[in-house]
Amino acid sequence: MQYWMACMRHKLTVILILLTLRPVAGGIPVLAPGQAHLQLDLHNEVGRSNFNFPWEEEPKESTTQQCRMPNRVDSSSDKWEGCPEDCPLYAEVDPHELHCYFECVGNSIESCKERNPRAPIPDKEMGICRSCMVEGCKVCATDGTDTCVECNANFVRIGNKRCQNKFMIVWVIVFVVLGALVVWVGLWLGDLAWRPIVNSTGLQQGLTLRSRAKLAMPYDEEERQRERGVEADSPAAAVTTATDTEQPEEAQGIERRNRSLWPLKTNLLTTRVAGPGLMLQFNLQYWIIIWAAIVAVAWLITASFYPDLFRLGTRRAQTPRQNCILVAWGYEVQHDLMWVKVAFCVAVYIFSFIGCIWFSIRQLRMFQLEDAQETTHKDFCAVLEGLPQISGHDHVEEEIAELLTRSTGVDVVGVSICWDFAEQDGLYMSVLESDLCDREHQWTSRKDRQSAKRKSMEGDSRTFLRKAVDIIEDAFLSPTAQKILTKGKKHVRNHKQARHTGNRGSLRASKTGAMDVEAMPVMEVNVQESLWLLKTTHKAFVVFNSEKDRDDAVALVEENGGMEFRESDLILKECKYEPNSVQWRNVTNETLTTKVVRALKGFAVIILALNIWIFVFYLPYAILALNFNYSYGQEPGFVESMSFSMLVVAGNAAMYLICAEVADYIGFESVDDREVCYMLLYNFACVFNVVLDIAITYVVAFEMMKGQDMRTYDGKHLKDVNTFEERVETYAMQREMGRSLWSYSFPSTFLLPFLIEPILTIYLPYKLSSWVVRSNTKFRSFHAERNLASTPMDLSRYADVLLNVILAVLIFFFPGGFTLQMFAMLAVSHVYIYGYDHYRVLRSIPQCEFASLNVDWWAQWLLTVPCGIIIAAAVYKWAVDTKHHTWGYGIVYLTSAAFIGHVLVHTALLVWFVPLLGRSEKEPSTKSYAECSRRLAQSWFSANPVHCLRSSFIYKHDPPCDFCMAGKEHLLRKNEAIGVYFDDQAMEAEDFNESIVDMSSVARSLSLRFSKKLDDEEEAPLSARSRIQKELMEEFEK
Predict the structure, then answer these.
(1) Residue 382: helix, strand or coil by DSSP?
(2) Distance CA 43, CA 10 (A)
(3) Nearest Cα residue to 513 out of 459, 458, 452
């Protein structure tokens, strides 16, 4: 697998390099079996065949070497030159005596030992005298055989040639447990697929809502007016609109059309499908692709004039002689072309810095233009803050509306108050969702209910295997498992079922007998009494008839210095977000101190998790890396490396989940603020992971270079290089760090996670939930709908994109051989990511709204990091090229100063300069609130759960204000007297191709039919049997 991945990387890069029409030298030799441990690039060399790319050098048959004549190799030496037949092996002169001196010796143990006792084994295939090849060996035998005398500290000797890890039994147990878990999950999946279907109704309910909850195009009010033959802006339009309630549209001869999903060809760069915030994210992804492609092409053009830039850091060696040649060549070429690298980094920095500022201005102006052109609910709303705590007994909404009308002279459509109902959130949502299901006639038939009830009364006759499988099923459906599968995006409520016992019987969580099917406790609660006990919070949303009325009211209240209400001073200000962006349950009466404490607790959890991550995941591997003996080119084995990779993946998943949980725990009042927090925490966790990985890579690379007896250009042994900056500047370390960064980036970080994401977060939860629901009668009504709900959208893609950009620009610190492929693959990977996100938004996610600029602004600020890294790399390369051993640690301080200086300047421009180039204040819209409310379903009234319940139980409106749930907008009932104008038909649900096939019944039917036909045609010839099998296969496919 590593071989094919390596070939794919090379071939993708080759296509771009060959465009320069300049041949690139530097071959990769063919390895003999068992020689992988001596090479520097295990990932790119293992398993190579005799196939050579066109530019790879072939070993030369002729030689200028002489037997028993030591020669020092340098950058001009031919790394493929062999020894004469009489003395076919290269033996390294003792490195402690002479550096990079080799002589040709005979193919015998004595000849090798005479020249270098540390390498007594003659290897004709490699053409060298080498040391023993025993994994985990500390001291090799000197008898010329692959025998180990002493093993490393963490290994025990097995026989004469093997050293086994002491903790191998631990790894065996871990893999056995994982294997058993995989088998168990496989049995569960098989059981799910073959279960009889007993709940097709619940499955259809869940899939229908899953389809209807997706993003749909809003109904155009202007189009509705044109259908009436009236211009939307004409005076007659107002008259026509006013008579809507007097005569239904069907009676007026107007055809009602269903809303539909956005077409796949929708341009998400310019079309607002889920708020301007999502549109800005897609623009960032698009321009990152353009930027990466431009940098790749620019490097391709630059390196075409200096072809050695393509090879720096990519040429490989498998023998000590080749190492000496490549280190000398790389050091000289790197310093000769350093001015090109510095100039290129400066050019990329200027281009990127100016591009970021231009892009920030563009994003700001695009957001302002979208806000000016699109009229939404926030344009008619003002936020009223400073409310005292008032009991739910009072008609507070009417009091505030009357007060505002008297104070400002502006009519108010209505007031939606934020109530402190966090503790009753599950109860209220259960009541509202049950009412929607009740009104949609989604309850099962009496026959189905009675059948399910009889089955539930038969007792528990499950076998042990069935009980064990049910445990896995319950674990999968748990809220924690759902959040892990969806990277913390799916918030599953653990509601108890509620049944209202008050006077208003229209809002109940269940009907008689329906709850017997559900294996859940039922609470009887008087919703009206519960609403009386609620208290108002400090905030309310006031809705006006027009945007001009809103602006006038805000200006008058501000001019009067506020407004007094029940001995409290109220302030009124413009609303910045949409009703479905408000997290109503998080608006509470908690004090500022309580909120700060909660935030500190959340950050403490992250710090604790990071420490656990370090000491549990990274520290063991670091200890292993430091204690391992890298002499003779040895590296940790496959088990250790694979285990570390698995631990890193598990740690990443845990950190993603923790960041999402902390963002939810803090309790932000709007989705946009929550997304800012989540994006910053998510990005911090990813960057922290990268820093740790690079640190571990540095340690492993340094120990590896020491074990391979690598030296600096002037012959100094790496183990004698004491300072960090001197170690990093050596070409051997530069080459290995660059290769490791490239391997870490592609495909591991750039592409693979996003290839796996649609499977783990979309298809797998959907498919498993479908199998579970269709085979379990307890999932009816909104329980089936919850389990089959789509994974919600978030803006964490900002962090993914920025992490990939940071990884890409880090390559400027290392040799340029990986620069082209790094940026080319960054662009290619993000083309796929963009396409996947495009399809996911239009065909998978439920309805959402990102109305704020906040998330994008913080993403713009995070772009200061890659820009700062680019200028830091330019300064570092310049300092390395110009220093004469006088910088010391000053080079670290200089590089850090360049990075920090850029971040400060970039931040200042974002804060003070960019806003100056935004658009001027927009003119108030001429559209009315009624027009907006008819077009957009979720209003400030229907989005507020408590407001809907108070409309039904306190104010007793007829019809009341219905709660707007994604996918059930057609259940909203129009009542213009209370500001509810939306009226729609049910969307046509998609065909999910969910074959409602009872596999066990199909198997029995096919078996019986097959047996019957065989009995009827016992003596049938082979052709008849083939015909029978063909018919059976056709029936099975149907």
Answers:
(1) strand
(2) 12
(3) 452
Look at strands 568-574 and 563-565 and give their pairing: antiparallel
Residues 533 and 399 sit within 8 Å (Cβ to Cβ): no
Nearest of 683, 684, 659 to residue 606 by alpha carbon: 659
β partners of residue 419? 536
DSSP letter for 391, please: B
In 510-567, the DSSP E strands lie at: 522-525, 536-544, 563-565
First to last CA, the chain: 38
Higher pLDDT, 709 or 246: 709
With beta carbons less than 8 A apart as the criterion, state whether 629 and 648 touch: no
**pTM recorded for the entire structure:** 0.81
Confidence check: pLDDT of 492 > 80: no
The answer to whether the beta carbons of residues 418 and 536 sit under 8 Å apart is yes
- What pLDDT does 1031 receive? 53
Rounded distance, CA 877 to CA 345, Å?
A: 9
For residue 411, the 8-state DSSP code is -
Single-letter amino acid, residue 545:
N
| pLDDT at position 53 | 37
Could you check whether the bond before residue 959 is cis, i.e. omega within 30 degrees of 0?
yes
* Spatial distance between the Cα atoms of 623 and 304, rounded to a whole number of angstroms: 43
**768 alpha carbon, distance to own chain's centre:** 21
Residue-by-residue DSSP string for 754-785: HHHHHIIIIIHHHHHHHHHHHT-TT--HHHHH
Q: Lowest-pLDDT range, 379-383, 446-450, 793-797?
A: 446-450
**Span 7-32, average pLDDT:** 37
Structural contact between residues 214 and 790, judged by C-beta atoms closer than 8 angstroms: yes
Highest mean pLDDT pick, 242-256, 282-296, 431-445: 282-296
CB-hemisphere CA count at 13 Å for 8? 9
Which run of H or of E encompasses 568?
strand 568-574
Task: State the Cα–Cα distance between residues 575 and 563, nearest whole angstrom.
Answer: 18
Helix (H, G, I), strand (E, B) or coil at 525: strand
- What is the per-residue DSSP string for 641-705? HHHHHHHHHHHHHHHHHHHHHHHHHHT-SBHHHHHHHHHHHHHHHHHHHHHHHHHHHHHHHHHHH
What does the radius of gyration of the chain's CA atoms come to, in whole angstroms?
A: 35
- CB 234, CB 225: distance < 8 Å: no
Contact yes or no for 299/306 (Cβ under 8 A): no
The amino acid present at 287, given as its one-letter code, is W
Query: Helix, strand, coil % (nearest 5) of the chain?
Result: 55, 10, 35
Q: Indicate the DSSP class of residue 148.
A: E
Query: Tens digit of pLDDT for each residue in 500-535?
Result: 454 444 444 333 333 333 444 555 668 888 899 999
Q: Helix 854-862 and helix 338-373: axis angle, to 10°?
A: 170
The chain-wide mean pLDDT, for the chain, equals 77
**Strand bridging mode 522-525 / 536-544:** unpaired
Q: Which residues pair with 266 in a beta bridge?
A: none
Cβ count within 10 A of residue 79: 22
Mean pLDDT of 263-275: 91
pLDDT in tens, 910-962: 999 999 998 877 788 888 999 999 988 899 999 999 999 999 999 999 999 99
Distance CA 365, CA 920 (A): 9
User: Is pLDDT of 829 > 90?
Assistant: yes
Can you state the angle between helices 864-882 and 338-373, rounded to 10 degrees? 170
Under DSSP, the state recorded for 511 is: -
- DSSP track, 429-482: HHHHHHHHHHHTT-SPPHHHHHHHHHHHHS-----HHHHHHHHHHHHHHSHHHH
Residue in 519, 511, 362, 540 with CA at minimum distance from that of residue 444:
511
The pLDDT tens digits of the residues spanning 73-119 come to 888 888 888 899 889 999 988 766 677 889 999 999 999 988 888 88
